[in-house]
Specification:
By secondary structure, the protein is α/β, with parallel strands linked by helices. 54% of the residues lie in helices and 13% in strands. The protein is elongated. It comes from Elongatibacter sediminis.
Length: 141
């Protein structure tokens, strides 16, 4: 314990940075859980996708979407969700699975749909990278 105190005293900036990063991680995880957005593995997402009242929204860039996407997915740029038109607002009434390339941008899109009133939103954990790694089918445009 004495060594830890000595280390913190000698490296206050490093210790402060560590505490700041730790608090940021805890806050981010807490905020994610409070948002009500679910994270689904590819196996869990299959049942979600097969629901007739669901829609798969892929927010990947069009070039990535055209290389391969989940069958039936609709490609929507993130900006189109934040500046919602009638079609996007209609999608917010459905059960939504939001997908992106690696699972990072989908959270922003899910938050955007939440602001539009969507109540049943899930994110594909790991994005298309994990979907492909787990060898689930894709279609190309």
């Amino acid at each position: 314990m004495d060594q830890l105190i000595e280390f913190i005293t000698n490296h206050a900036l490093l210790a402060g940075g560590f505490v700041a990063v730790l608090l940021l991680l805890v806050w981010t995880e807490f905020a994610r859980r409070l948002s009500g957005t679910k994270e689904l593995t590819p196996a869990q997402a299959v049942a979600w996708i097969n629901d007739p009242d669901s829609a798969v929204i892929d927010v990947s860039p069009a070039a990535d979407f055209n290389k391969g996407h989940i069958i039936g997915a609709k490609n929507l740029p993130l900006t189109r969700i934040t500046q919602a038109d009638a079609e996007v607002r209609k999608l917010a009434e459905k059960k939504l699975l939001v997908v992106c390339k690696a699972g990072q941008t989908a959270g922003q899109a899910a938050s955007g749909f939440g602001k539009l009133g969507a109540r049943n939103i899930a994110i594909l954990k790991g994005g298309m990278a994990r979907w492909l790694a787990d060898q689930y089918p894709v279609t190309r445009k």
